[in-house]
Amino acid sequence: YAKLFHSTLLDTEQLARPIIDNENRKESVLKYLGAWASMKVNINTAPRHVLEAAFMFGGDADKIAEEIIQQRRIMPFESIGELKQSLYSYNDSIRKCEKFITTTSRFFTIRVRAVSGGAEAASVIAITKDGKKVQRVAVINI
User: Fold this and answer.
1) Burial grade of 138 (CB within 10 A; 0-12, 13-18, 19 or more)
2) Residue 66 contacts residue 60 (beta carbons within 8 Å)
3) DSSP state, 98?
């Protein structure tokens, strides 16, 4: 899969085109598609629809996502235990989805876009960060 994802046969330009394009959101599939990363969603950084997907097996996904977004604006969650305490009424739902969520990340994506006149170039770089050690995982030029 990783070889296919980085293959020249893959039309990353098509994947980079916005599927949601309005005054509030401009998002493409490429933003959320990756052949690297962990199997867990960081609740402190994930967008709403990713949070909803992570909690869909527990029920109340839209309500939990909204609560997480509102609370993390004030202060990020330090642990899943803190999330459970904070959203006590959704404990059963959170417990069912606990293996899919985390409060920290080791994998990060850096997006760079440059425009000069009519020319445009963009890259997506995936890195891992373990303490002070940063390692490049992949680079995709779009």
Assistant:
1) middle
2) no
3) G
Q: Is this prediction's pTM over 0.70?
A: no
Cα separation of 73 and 95, whole Å? 23
How high is the pLDDT of residue 3? 46
DSSP-based three-state secondary structure for 118: coil
Which pLDDT score, from 0 to 100, does residue 62 have?
92
Q: What is the dihedral of CA 9, 119, 111, 74, to 10 degrees?
A: -140
SS3 4: helix
Residue 15 confidence (pLDDT): 57
In this structure, are strands 41-42 and 26-28 parallel, antiparallel, or unpaired?
Answer: unpaired
DSSP state of 45: T
Residue pointed to by tokens 């401009």: 26
d(CA 55, CA 66): 12
Asked if 27 contacts 50 with a C-beta cutoff of 8 angstroms, the reply is no
State pLDDT tens for residues 45-56: 888 988 988 898
What angle is formed at CA 27 by the lines to CA 8 and CA 79, rounded to 5 degrees? 105
pLDDT value for 14: 60
